[in-house]
Structures are given as structure tokens and as C-alpha cells.
Design goal:
The complex is a heterodimer of chains A (224) and B (98). By secondary structure, chain A is mainly alpha-helical. Chain A has a domain of 100 residues. Chain A has nine helices and no strands. Chain B is an alpha+beta fold. Chain B has a single domain, classed as 2-Layer Sandwich (Potassium Channel Kv1.1, Chain A). Classes of the chains: A mainly alpha (224), B alpha+beta (98). Chains A and B meet through helix 1 of A and helix 4 and helix 5 of B. Chain B: Pfam families: Skp1_POZ (PF03931). Chain B: Pathway: Protein modification; protein ubiquitination. Chain B: It is found in: Nucleus. Chain B: This is Elongin-C.
Chain lengths: 224, 98
């Protein structure tokens, strides 16, 4: 007995191959809508978008419109889809689902960008706040009071006085006649008693013809 | 093969494929063309022209015809289709009811 096996038709084989290679499809040209009905439901959003854009001069919506409606519901929820349909009815307008999908996607993207910007701003603010509270290195070295011990112009020692006003007051006091008189008396007293003098006594070092020695011998000769 | 057992399929470019009549009859369209009494010039000459089908596609179709006969007789193998031919081949196959 000769069993007649059902041979797969070439059309079927082609449809199967097309479904397997749906990611490579672009311009579907003049392909029958009936055939596309079998193939296009196997596309992802990106694949379907690519095919629609590549197939110029031909309206695929008899096949694709219901596919886009499904994509819309899946991506944005059936509630949103129903809302959109209601609005279209109210306004007596009709839009292709592919356009509705694209528009909604744009809206969602814009909202997302806005909130990302907000977060970025908050991070920036926090960063700036943290920076301002940090200990920062200075390039200038504050003046060291101890070092300027000998540097005072008029020669008065006011290094132990911190305030400028006090410094001024102290200098004026030191300049006054009374204090100067007292300072002079102190100096003379020191010179009369050479043993108390901070200078070394030259009489301890005998040396002839030394100009310095003879000079320093003089005050020691002044004895009362 | 005797001439009576063959048909000539001619592509858009004028390429002639001489194949077994049984193979050609796998296509319902060709079968109708060849068996309809007198209404087609094809029955007289035993040749069919396909000005819309390119040579590459027509060649693939002939290969399918032979594969189909083989499959029906028990030898089930895979019929490979190059992805770049898929859409065009599909449309031609649709037209030829095969």
C-alpha cells in the first residue's frame, strides 16, 4: 500500500523560514498581507518598528495595527489603553496604534529624564555642601609672632602683646619721657659697675698695642 | 527523458528549465495550465513563461518540486531555504499554489 504523506507546501516552508529569520526582515515589499499575518505576530517591538519603517510606500496597518495595540497594552497597561480609546471616541478622532505607542513612549522618556535631572541636582547640592565644610589647605602661612622678636621698627619689645591696639598703647608708653629717663638711669647704673656688665673685662687679657684693648681699658680706669 | 514527459519553465531573464512533467504538476497552477483542454498555449508547446519570477527563484522552485516527489515517496529530508530568498520565494510559491 502506498501511503501518501502530506508534503509540506513551499509556502508553509517559506513562512516557517521567515518566522525563524524575522530579525533579519526589513522591507517586506509586496508580500501578501495574508502571509504577513502569519509572520509578523512573531516580531518584537523593535523588529516590527524596523519593518514598518523599512517598508516604504506601503501601509501595513491592516496587519500591524492590532499588533501595536497589543504592544501598547503590554507596555503601558490595559487601563491606559482603554483610556486612550475612550478619549479617541470622545473626540471623534482615530489614531493608528503605532503612533499612539510612539507618542506614549516619548512622554514616558521625558518624564524619566526630568526625574533623573532632579536627582542629579540633589546630588550636586549635597556635594557642594560637603565640600564647603571640608578643611581646606591654605597657600598662605600666618605670620609667626615669636620670630618677629627683633623686627620691631622703633626697637621696642612688644612681642608679648597680642592685640594691635595694645601694641600701640604699649609703644606709646615706652616712648614717653618718664620711661626713657628710667631706662637711661638703668643703663648708667650698669656701666658704673663693670663687674655686673655683660661685657667681658679686658683687664683679664693683657696685650700690648691692641687698639681694642686700650679702648676698653679706659672705663675701668674711671674709678671713684 | 522523452520530450512528452517534460515541460519547459522559462524565467523572467529567459532562462529555460526543462523538468519532469510530474515534478511540474506539484504546482496546482502549472497543473491547471497543462491539463486544461486547449485554453492555454502552454499545452501546445509544453512550455510556460514566468515573466515575474527571477531565475534564482525559479531554480529553487524546481528543486522544491523534486524534493516534494521524494518526500511523498518516503524519503523525508530537510528542504533548506536561504534566508535572503525567503520573501520572494514565498510570493512565487503563493502564486503557483505550491
Amino acid at each position: 500500500m502506498h501511503l501518501k504523506r502530506k508534503v509540506p507546501s513551499l509556502v508553509d516552508l517559506c513562512v516557517r523560514t521567515a518566522i525563524d529569520n524575522v530579525r533579519y526582515l526589513g522591507d517586506v515589499g509586496e508580500t501578501d498581507l495574508d502571509l504577513l499575518e502569519h509572520i509578523l505576530p512573531h516580531c518584537t517591538v523593535d523588529q516590527l518598528m524596523h519593518i514598518e519603517n523599512s517598508t516604504v510606500g506601503r501601509d501595513l496597518s491592516p496587519v500591524t495595527d492590532k499588533l501595536w495595540k497589543k504592544f501598547y497594552e503590554k507596555q503601558f497597561g490595559t487601563e491606559n489603553a482603554n483610556l486612550v480609546m475612550k478619549r479617541m471616541k470622545q473626540n471623534n478622532a482615530s489614531f493608528k496604534w503605532v503612533k499612539l505607542y510612539e507618542a506614549k513612549l516619548k512622554d514616558v522618556e521625558e518624564a524619566q529624564n526630568k526625574s533623573l535631572d532632579r536627582i542629579r541636582q540633589l546630588y550636586k547640592k549635597e556635594d557642594a555642601r560637603r565640600q564647603s565644610r571640608q578643611v581646606q589647605l591654605c597657600s598662605k602661612v600666618p605670620p609667626n609672632n615669636k620670630r618677629s622678636y627683633w623686627g620691631n621698627g622703633p626697637g621696642y619689645n612688644v612681642s608679648n602683646v597680642k592685640s594691635n591696639l595694645m601694641k600701640k598703647a604699649k609703644i606709646e608708653f615706652l616712648k614717653s619721657q618718664e620711661v626713657r629717663n628710667m631706662a637711661a638711669v638703668k643703663k648708667n647704673a650698669i656701666q658704673r659697675h663693670p663687674c655686673v656688665s655683660p661685657f667681658k673685662s679686658p683687664s683679664g687679657i693683657p696685650s700690648k698695642g691692641s687698639a681694642s684693648t686700650s679702648k676698653q681699658v679706659k672705663p675701668s680706669e674711671r674709678r671713684f | 527523458m522523452r520530450k512528452e514527459d517534460t515541460v519547459k519553465l522559462i524565467s523572467a531573464e529567459g532562462f529555460e528549465f526543462v523538468i519532469d512533467k510530474r515534478a511540474a504538476m506539484v504546482s496546482q497552477t502549472i497543473r491547471n495550465m497543462l491539463t486544461s483542454p486547449g485554453s492555454f498555449a502552454e499545452t501546445q508547446l509544453g512550455e510556460v513563461r514566468f515573466p515575474e519570477i527571477s531565475t534564482t527563484i525559479l531554480e529553487k522552485i524546481c528543486q522544491y518540486f523534486y524534493w516534494s516527489l521524494q518526500y511523498a515517496s518516503g524519503k523525508e529530508t530537510e528542504f533548506h531555504i536561504e534566508p535572503e530568498l525567503t520573501l520572494e520565494l514565498m510570493m512565487a510559491a503563493n502564486y503557483l499554489h505550491t
